[in-house]
Amino acid sequence: MFVAITMRSGRTPERKRALYRRITELAQAYAGAEPRNVFVTVTENESVDWSLGHGLAQYAPSAEPVAEG
Question: How many angstroms separate the CA atoms of 64 and 14, rounded?
Answer without folding.
Answer: 40
